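Recall the central idea of this unit: under ordinary conditions, the amino acid sequence of a chain determines the structure it adopts. In this exercise we apply that idea directly, starting from the sequence alone.
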Amino acid sequence: MIPHSCNGPLGEALLQDLNLPLEIIENKFFTAWYWPPHHPKQHSKFWGILKAFPKASQRFFVFRRLFPSARHSEDLNESFQEFLKSRTEDPQIFQFFNAIIGFALSINTTQITTAAMFRFFRRLYQKGKPGVPVGGCKAVTDKLVDHARMNGSVLKKSCELIKLELDGMEIESAIYQDRKTNEEFVIRAKQYILNLGYLQVNDLLSKSNIPFRLPTMPTAKGGGFAYRSKESILKTSVVAQFPENKYVKGAVEPTISSPNLAPQGEHLLLSHQVFHSSDIIHDTRRARDELLETFPQLKEENELCVHTFHKEWPVNYSCQGSDLSNFSSVIPNLFFVGDGYKGNNGWMMAEGVTHGVKQVVNSILSKHN
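Accordingly, the structure predicted from this sequence is:
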């Protein structure tokens, strides 16, 4: 799923900048909210999500008291949890916001500043609903690979970057190792771009004896499940939000928009959950139990896979708002892209990563113009 469909940095890069032969189907609705015992409510416009609240008083509070604060939020560095606590004690208000960022960002309201939260919502308001690329994520990556190769790029798979070598103050070469054969290769280039997270970057810099380190960033913990089903579980392609759940904050059924993502007659359900402890196995089990309780028609034997992240570098690893805004290092020809380098601008997930890539490309091109 692409967070802002064709309207964010990723959709614009794929369809306009690169002109890839790709179709992105924008969802008709923003979200569907499950407040037991009521049936899910779907909302087609940004402000329509306020109708997700069961009570009119809650909708009034958010619309008239909370969102107007966004105009003066840039210096609000307190956590959004503290911001809410000073204004309301309604538990469903907290559940609402924790469900949104729990699914989208793998964090809770204690892990994001008020300023970053309002920047995040401002992007939702400006750029609109998510979309599903026809053929799924694989279609996107396949098209990108084809485009890169057509333009002379050489892609090496199953390789690991093991060392950078300095010449004066610039990187002279990079050494990578084939994971299958352990054979080492040397690459020499004018510019080097790393898409590793700060933990891996700092480990690489240490092994390379380069006296430079990236700062520590607060990190998120989360994971997801993939289930197959003979029947449609959500019966909608939009993000389903579960505000009363502790772990599983949302799920999507991409086969509603793109049926070819599953065998004929079957459906694919993808859930996402927040972890609350360092015990990943425990939290994964609790999340699975919660998902199966939420949708009893799912069967554990139909679980396709489960993925977790807590040490490596997926798209949500750094807490929203804590990303570095400087995409270059003290080494003039070394740049960074990926999560952790999105800048503090409200772009989330792959949208933020794409924004960071554009910044790096523009910086490199400006040096040569």
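The chain has four domains: 1-27+130-153, 28-129, 156-217+317-368, 222-309.
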